Amino acid sequence: MDTITETATTARPAPGWATAAGLVALTPPRSPGGEHGGPALDRLLIAERIARYGWAYDERDQAALAECFTADATWRATVMGEIETPLHRGAETIAAAEAALWPQQGDQRRHMFTNHVIDLSGDEATAHAYVIQLRIEDAASSLAISGAYRFHLRRETDGIWRIDTLRSALDNLT
């Protein structure tokens, strides 16, 4: 057994354990229906989209991760402005690129997005949020990464807000 596989199968808690145990079962987002509820509801729905992105990653749900993005979305990350990831295009490509990180992370990850600032402009929005990502291994938590995320979102024809541009600015990388 290689080290990554061995770590992944012996980690406590195992990544995605809450979903596997039936404790987490997120349903897909739904359109509020009819007329949009105004800027306050839009801000809540955008913050929820950002949270769903974190949940999908942490529970290792690649389909739910792809659902967070528009079909033509882009994602790029930087670490302290010194290391750049390639630009990824398309919801499925972004989800696959992020899922490709999971084998390297034999621990359970938990994204926490805070300090949301959301600027609305019709059916588009720009949101900024800090991210704190915990690493939980052997029943102990530690900081994995911190940083700032900038999201550009669009309300699509089904009434659902999705990310069309994600820029991750990480303070560290572990």
List segments where confidence is low: pLDDT < 50 over at least 5 consecutive residues: 1-9
Number of helices: 5
Q: Mean pLDDT score, rounded?
A: 87
Structural class: alpha+beta
Distance between the termini: 23 Å
Shape designation: globular
> How much strand content do the residues show?
35-45%
User: What is the number of beta strands?
Assistant: 7
Reported for the largest beta sheet, the result is: 7 strands, mixed
Question: Helix amount, in percent?
Answer: 25-40%
* SSE sequence, one letter per element: HHHHEEEHEEEE
Backbone CA Rg? 16 Å
Outline the structure in words.
- The chain is α+β, with helices and mostly antiparallel strands.
- The protein is built from five helices and seven strands, in the order H-H-H-H-E-E-E-H-E-E-E-E.
- The radius of gyration is 16 Å and the shape is globular.
- The protein starts with a helix and ends with a strand.
- Residues about 1-10 have low confidence and may be disordered.
- Strands 1, 2, 3, 4, 5, 6 and 7 form a seven-stranded mixed β-sheet that branches.
